[in-house]
């Protein structure tokens, strides 16, 4: 086999409940993940060494210069892990075509790692009698990063623990979204640290998070209006403190008829739920003309996880 290409989606957090800080430095989370039709593609080709190259997808304004091309890249870590499990040398060139925002709260790096797991397993494993199962890839993904297993799974799911232990969630129909990116990213550890600082400053004790019953019902019913009302992110106050301009972005989307608006994950990308595909297209155009975002674009979900092309 000369090349394997895998397409992998971005995610938006419909709910991100952040619990107490654990002894291992992580927080207990309840994460309702939703995969959306914004995709990176990772191609694995045989090579004489492990290398990573990155390019932007057509029409995507992504800061590819911020993506590491060294061994620190999550996709490279995934390739090394697959090679170790299969007892082969990690001799592969990984070509990443990015459309998912970099450091934007949509798990682009984790998505690339998931795609690399699938691509390298296909490149090096025996397709007739594979040694690595889908469950093996999920376990390996959790060792790389908390969001990697969901990028493999796709659809809609609740993640608990660090977010890596997943249960699929029934969702009816299709939901239409607009995502507004910001100029520059936000550090996920910095946003979590700011969340902890704000809670301490206010004398708040971190609650034990649980999945929203209203959110689950809205997903099951395919009720976009109810889903918009139930969207919630415990990290949003921290992201807005670190990047106050996001308040204007969220307000602009709400003023233009979004059913719901929130910062996606640790930000700074803002997510808006629209009434329909046409409304999403109109809302994206309006935000692009309002000078409140680097770029706004429409997408839909849920969509499948990492998929061989």
Automatic annotation (TrEMBL):
Alphabetized InterPro entries for the sequence: GHMP_kinase_C_dom (IPR013750), GHMP_kinase_C_sf (IPR036554), GHMP_kinase_N_dom (IPR006204), IspE (IPR004424), Ribosomal_Su5_D2-typ_SF (IPR020568), Ribsml_uS5_D2-typ_fold_subgr (IPR014721)
UniProt record, GO biological process: isopentenyl diphosphate biosynthetic process, methylerythritol 4-phosphate pathway; terpenoid biosynthetic process
Enzyme class: transferase
PANTHER family for this protein: 4-DIPHOSPHOCYTIDYL-2-C-METHYL-D-ERYTHRITOL KINASE, CHLOROPLASTIC
Active site positions: 11, 147
Protein name: 4-diphosphocytidyl-2-C-methyl-D-erythritol kinase
Protein family: Belongs to the GHMP kinase family. IspE subfamily.
Gene Ontology MF terms in the entry: 4-(cytidine 5'-diphospho)-2-C-methyl-D-erythritol kinase activity; ATP binding
